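[Q] Does anyone have a clean structure-token version of this?
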Amino acid sequence: MSLSSPDDAEVSQTSPLVSPEEESDLPFPHLPGEPEPKPGLDGKPVRWFDANRLEPYTRITPFQEKHDTSVEFFYKPVTLSVLGVALAVLSYIATTQDVLEEGRDKRRVGAYAAIAGFLLFGIIQFRDGPFIRPHPVFWRLVLGVNLLYELALVFLLFQDLDSARAMMVYIDPNLGRPLPEKSYAENCDFTFTNIWNAVDIFCLAHALGWFGKALILRDYWFCWILSIAFEFAEYSLQHQLANFAECWWDHWILDVLVCNWLGICLGMKTCQYFEVKQYTWRGFRQTRGIRGKAKRVVSQFSPADWTTFKWEGTANFTHYVTVVLLLAVFLAAELNPFYLKTLLWMEPEHPFVIARLAGVFLCALPAVRELYQYVGDPRRAVRMGQHVWLLIATVGTEFLAITKWSQGQFPDPLPKTVKYAWALGATLLVLYPTIVFGVPSIRRYLRRQSRKTKPKAQ
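[A] Here you go.
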């Protein structure tokens, strides 16, 4: 009895049976009369960097769940629905007497409505950043708040100091009063009593601040360099700001070795935990048990993945310039609130000051991540991210406003020792890349020129 069928007539008795998977690996048959195909593109080998990165097939998506499909509603585009609801709410508030009574001042409510409308547009239409947890809408909202703050700074930049102080009264009637100057260098005897009396709520603020900076920078050396540089900046500017005048043990023991070290250590331990953590994302419905579902809800507020930063400031000139500029931006972002609260007469514990610090922290998280990818992977990040661009613009606008408003406010001249110290620091910052990167580049250039001229001489 034969097991062969008429369809198998073309298969010889000696040919092996080939499965569909194995058949796909066989060479493509060359038909007679057709030119033999050449390898590569028109006979030229295709290199990996020749691929068009704009084509969809070159965009590699990581093998991970972008969002929880069990709550698909929160990730569907609902732009028209949100627009309809927003217009309905706006018409009800603006045209009825239930919320706005006749004769009442409506300027404040109108300003709040304009801000809400702008933020609503931002969370719907802004581009997504590098973070997707807890939801991309949250980081669009952060970007929108940053943009609003930048626009407010641009408006205040065109006002004089007295007008800016008067405008602060419209926001908070308790503002607009001069603040007493406070110095922390009155009793600098190195005793336990003095050190204990210097411990206050600002020590906790120091530790929390450096915990946040460690989460942003993710590098021990960078955090320590920034910590020491800030203390030197306090020494340099204490002739302008009285609260920068501190005892030596307050600078180096209480601030650097206790508060800053504690915050940096806890922050880097948190970074190490996220670095080695196993990221396995499951949907809410796929998670079993109440405890498992509760953990899944909490994990929604943790990172979806983690990128370890290796700044390598001495690797090449580009990395060196990036690290120096990032250090300068961070120092400016640290010093700006001290000047702003002094010039605009705000207490350190005022909600505006605290909101500014918290806002800069939230903005810096995606901004530094975008900057790291822009510098470290320029082939994929063809342009600077929106978060880092706007944050640099915000810090720069703050600096411009402080420079304008400080004229005539700080009559004491810059001490000579501070001038010499800044000149020495600037010289070292320029001298290091010149020796490490500039001199070897010049030598390589001269060698290439000498090799080109030798054949001509022969």
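[Q] Thanks! Anything notable?
[A] Confidence is low (pLDDT under 50) at residues 1-26, 51-65.
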